[in-house]
Amino acid sequence: MSGFMNSVEELLTTISGIVWGPPFLILILGTGIFLTVRLGFLQFSTLPYALKLAFSKQDKKSEGDISHFQSLMTALAATVGTGNIAGVATAVVIGGPGAVFWMWISALFGMATKYGEAILAVKYRVQDERGRMAGGPMYYIEKGLGWKWLAVLFAVFAAIAAFGIGNTVQSNSVADVLDSNWNVPTWITGIALSILTGVVILGGIKSIGRVVSFIVPIMAVFYVVGGLIVIFGNLDLVPAAVGSIVSDAFTGQAAAGGAVGVVIQYGVARGVFSNEAGLGSAPIAAAAARTDYPGRQALVSMTQVFIDTIIICSITGISLVMGQSFVSGDLDGAPLTAATFEHFLGPAGSIIVSVGLIFFAYSTILGWSYYGERCIYYLFNTYKAVFAYRVVFVIAVFFGAVVQFGIVWSLADTMNGLMAAPNLIALLGLSGVITAETVRFRKRMKEEKNGTATWNKS
């Protein structure tokens, strides 16, 4: 049986390598660069306002199911997960320290990509049979580009991808770290996560929004504070770590095979896995937000990439590189991050990573369950199919906890690439719409600043 599993893992790894090859890396980075230039480097000039907007109260008269903040927390719940702990560790192990640099690059341009996704999601969203907002790439591909077949492909890939990036990878990483650190059997972890997931997702997006709005801020602050203690408590190691990250990004000396291409590949792949810019997942949550202008929610959605990768992933990456000389080279994934924090903080370090991972993974499972069910609703146009999907999704949480580690990561990477391709094509094809909506919203912001704005229902 182990031989068969190894063969499956090798096959998936090969497919993942093809999907995440140079053409796709050019497409995903190129889309971010193209939108950045076309939007006038908007992600840099509007970031302070976007962060303020994300955490401000809003007018409840706007159409939508959840607030800006709940939409951001749902998107963060789906992205601030094992990618921030286990994914970064895997990138550093295989791609070397330089992979962290390419995670930063992908995030900076990915902010523009995320902005464009959210604008289209709100502009082309619809109300379903229960009066709830439904939107995302499948809707703006069909209604904006007029390519129903491509919209269906996205929905199929995303519904399947939810079982990888948003389900089995998450429960697998939790089971792995609990088994390694506290000897908790993987099947117990699987059952516990399955029950906790089922209790929440049966309530739909409003239930998910309420839960993640409570969990995400607490878990993010908890982990970030722990990471900052590691960094500021060992400032003498930081310059060398950052220097290694930057220099190795262009040499590839520490990467598997010693190739710069490997560094870029794993940096971008893990960066996208973490912040999901370009995948087309987060705009599904953005479409549910109460907002008067697509551009307003787009700015809020953009901040998710900044928080996820530039802040949280950076803390993990720098800490890992700082600890490379002190921690066993045989470790990978979440156990490596836990061992690194434990080296610097003692037993408390392992607890920070373990507890952080549990909450990160659980919230990601909740966020992705919503993404998957929205895709299923698009494909079958009935809530009976959504209920069936929820049941299967909960069962998959258990199996993710007990299967082989490498298989679920390779499957997740493959599905990520396949669902991203239709979304990126739509972003490029509808870039004119994104620009027009941005101009419209900038005019609105000027009116608000001058005190001449009137309420708009959009």
UniProtKB/TrEMBL annotation:
Gene3D superfamilies: Amino acid/polyamine transporter I. It is a multi-pass membrane protein. The chain crosses the membrane at residues 24-51, 72-95, 101-124, 145-166, 186-205, 212-235, 241-264, 305-327, 347-371, 391-412, 418-439. Keywords: Cell membrane, Membrane, Symport, Transmembrane, Transmembrane helix, Transport. The keyword RNA-binding does not apply. The keyword Coiled coil does not apply. It is found in: Cell membrane. GO terms for cellular component: plasma membrane. Pfam families: Na_Ala_symp. Belongs to the alanine or glycine:cation symporter (AGCS) (TC 2.A.25) family. This is Alanine or glycine:cation symporter, AGCS family. It comes from Marinococcus luteus.
